[in-house]
Amino acid sequence: MKNNILFSQHFKIQSDSIEFFDIPLLKDKRAFICPFLIANNRDVKLINEVYNRITQFLTKLNRDYVVTGDRINGLNFLSHLHEANEYHLGYSGSNKGKAVSNFRAATIYDALQNNKFAVKGISITNEAHNVLLLVKGIGQDIMSDILANVCRDIFADYTKQVCDKYSVSTYSFKIEYFDASTNKWQTKECSLPMFNGKKIILLPRKLACSGRAYHSLYNWFIASNYIARDLLNFKLNESLESGLLHKLEDGTIRAVVKKINGTYRKPKQELIDFVIRYNGSIDRFLNYSKDNYFEAS
DNA sequence: GGTGAGTTAACTGGCTTCAG
DNA sequence: CTGAAGCCAGTTAACTCACC
Questions:
Q1: Domain interval for residue A222
Q2: A275 contacts: CB under 8 Å, gap ≥ 6
Q3: How far is the CA of A86 from the C1' of C16 (A)?
């Protein structure tokens, strides 16, 4: 048997356009559930459900535990985030993620506790893509893990639909997820496909990306759309001399985004300053990402 | 053509935890 | 105490394209 056999190959799915994200069964694929793709595909009913669920989860986490500084109960609330091996995604290639959920819970809680927006109860950090963009310490892997756990029932239902469509047999498994109506963690029985005795959960293709440094892209976006505009408006000589602006032969002055970004870029924990100074820029950035940054192939 | 901006992905460093 | 591994974040390298 080939070492990298895919879900579609093993279950003999023949289709020109597979709508789910095909994963290897014997190892993990280096990909993540991307919150930017979630926020930008809300016209799809299932994805809108995912968006509402993760927003509800983050709202509760921020309001009940981060703003109040209730670390003990916050960590307890987050202790349900287990290694989501059934998705076959992540950094490690082996699909054997370690049981570090306690440490991970502390990482997430402390990262939010150190974020100016989150502790003040500002709603920006109730949205997953803003947490990924603005909260230092929470990267692609951790955000992907949170989404996988919180929305496990939604993706399990999706997987069942895919299996029915392609006649893949399913078996009963117990899963844990964050329940929207009770605002608590719950378990339930689900019918899921199986490989080597372990359950598998699939994602819609539209939600998987191979990893993208959004904080760098936001820096670039700010340099190119806001700081460049300001520099061009004032046309200061020092900007010309330092190479931030460039005069073409015909006399027109252009902004050199690369130089501007190099001069003004901020580390992740200070990106909040850009959000405050350039009002509306994160919404514009989200919209920009819709047209420019796509799902993994 | 040569130069360098713009863009993407891969690499690297550094911090943290876990196993032995 | 030490080495290995996980993960975030910053850097470099490789490529394409516009300008001169």
A1: 214-292
A2: A117, A124, A134, A281, A282
A3: 39
